[in-house]
Amino acid sequence: MSLFIIGDVHGCFHSYLKLMDHWEPKTETLIQLGDLVDRGNFSPLTLRLAFEIKKVFKNSVHFLKGNHEQMMINYLQGEDHSDHWLNNGGKETLEQFKKENLNPESYLGWLSSMPLFWENKNVVVSHAGFSGIGSPLDLDNTDGVLWNRKSLVNLGKLQVIGHTPLVDGRPEFQSSSNSWNIDTGAYKGHCLTGIKLKKDGTFLETISIPTITKDYNSTSSQFHTGLIKSSIEGKSRI
């Protein structure tokens, strides 16, 4: 199975749906590297779609934890005493859940169980990458795989990360660390990017979907259950 790795979605549901049209479930393992929620206008939709996809495709789909998922978890568990999440997109996300008459706590167990990284012999995927400073899997390590913004170390295998939006909206390869950053600033109105690799890390292609305007520049957040259902059923038939 080759790999289809998707960058930070940040609630850009319609752009996410369009990018998912490029996923081939029979031949590709799907990996999303975290930050499904916050910033964009449709976090509940985005989270629900990911949850339903995971239920249907199970072991061929991997949703990793990003720092925004961790902030959301901390808040829902009553451990965010400084309103860190609320001040970083969480307030708007809660309002979206309220409009959709959905309870974000129904996703708490799944969010908490998300892994911090995915790897095989040649590729490792995480939200913010391995800096070589401190314990990479420590949830509170600002240089760990949830929060790091420092240069990456070369692990002897290809790293694919997001977390730090690229100012020109283009995915970037760094030869020194043998790494791709595919956070192309979807919520900023740039684009949402996925990268396709062979399982040995050989690059195949990048696919960038210009962010659909209503994902980041609209007050509308009407719940589109039919879109989610039709998307998953369509993939199941492939």
Automatic annotation (TrEMBL):
<dbReference type="InterPro" id="IPR006186">
    <property type="entry name" value="Ser/Thr-sp_prot-phosphatase"/>
</dbReference>
<protein>
    <submittedName>
        <fullName>Serine/threonine protein phosphatase</fullName>
    </submittedName>
</protein>
<feature type="domain" description="Serine/threonine specific protein phosphatases">
    <location>
        <begin position="64"/>
        <end position="69"/>
    </location>
</feature>
<dbReference type="InterPro" id="IPR004843">
    <property type="entry name" value="Calcineurin-like_PHP"/>
</dbReference>
<dbReference type="InterPro" id="IPR029052">
    <property type="entry name" value="Metallo-depent_PP-like"/>
</dbReference>
<dbReference type="Pfam" id="PF00149">
    <property type="entry name" value="Metallophos"/>
</dbReference>
<dbReference type="InterPro" id="IPR050126">
    <property type="entry name" value="Ap4A_hydrolase"/>
</dbReference>
